[in-house]
Amino acid sequence: MQRIVEGYFGLLKILIVLCLAVMVVLVFGNVVLRYGFNSGITVSEELSRWCFVWLTFLGAILGMREHTHLGVDLIIKHLPALGKKICLILGHLLMLYATWLFLQGSWQQTLINLRVGAPATGLSMGLFYGVGIVFSVSTGLILIYELGHAISGKVTEAELVGIRQTEDDTELEELQQELSAGKQTQPVLDSAKKPMGSTKP
């Protein structure tokens, strides 16, 4: 089961890279053709927009899994373990409800536009709105899994704070965990304590 999950998220990463590559080729190619050859790629704008939308939603799925979405942890990080657990459970329940609403809307829009062709490519507009279904289902399963772990008490106190206010806070906590685990050597610690611009050995 774990291999299937890892394979799925690996596939998402590949799709993100492909979307980005297609966007670069279409947009750059269209600019070159317009200014150099007075021509262009007819479907460039439409396909690049679709790729951008898919890239954004697929990236949000990975961000949810890896807990890289930013939030406000000013109060939560000062709560006791029980308070953090309650906030985590409530937060996940609210996100599940929002995800359910998003899934409903995406499903309805996909059905409505399933036989509607896009202006430039003629592709079904259901493909455009379908990414909302992929996002909602994937995110919902992630939230349910994490909610089950939180209720069963299988998460550590550090994992109870699922968001960070800035990326610097995340890096600082990771460094503190490495220091507490004894993974940093003393020379590294000494160099970190040196003032900026110091040239002394």
Notes on the structure:
The protein is an all-alpha fold and 201 residues long. It has two domains: 1-52; 67-180. Helices cover 70% and strands 0% of the residues. It has helices at 2-37, 44-66, 81-112, 126-152, 167-180, 186-193. Helix 1 packs antiparallel against helix 2 (44-66), helix 2 (44-66) runs parallel beside helix 4 and helix 3 packs antiparallel against helix 4 (126-152). The chain is elongated, with a radius of gyration of 23 Å.
Mean pLDDT: 80
Shape: elongated
Straight-line N-to-C gap: 52 Å
SSE topology string = HHHHHH
Residue share in β-strands:
under 5%
Descriptors:
single chain, 201 residues, mainly alpha, 6 helices
Short description:
By secondary structure, the chain is an all-alpha fold. It is built from six helices and no strands. It has two domains: 52 residues; 114 residues.
Secondary-structure blueprint:
Elements: H1 2-37, H2 44-66, H3 81-112, H4 126-152, H5 167-180, H6 186-193
